[in-house]
Amino acid sequence: MNRVATLALVSAFSSLALAGVSRAESFGMNSPSGIEQTLRHFRGNDFTVRHFYNFHDVSPEANGPRSAPPRSAQDVRQIQASIDANKVLMRKLGNDGVNVRNVINAEQAADGSITLFTD
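Given the sequence above, the corresponding structure tokens read:
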């Protein structure tokens, strides 16, 4: 009986520990509409800006930096419009010297941080 109670307690604590990871369960968070919503409402400081690396233009043997899959021209315009609509994010990017017209992709991590990719 003691083992059953211990197992039940361990299971309960494990469930509580994983309860805060619900953002990682959202498969649509990096879809075009999902990332646009995130960018329009993003208020944090947890974002990075990286150069976009086109992994489709290199041989499979080459090892390059990780990048996000390319977006369509319409998706890029919508990402830029979403950033334009977020004055807080626009100000932070401006302070970092990032021109929004150079942002060609965005990706949200499971921890809520944002990576913006520039060309």
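The mean pLDDT is 76. Try to locate this feature in the token string yourself.
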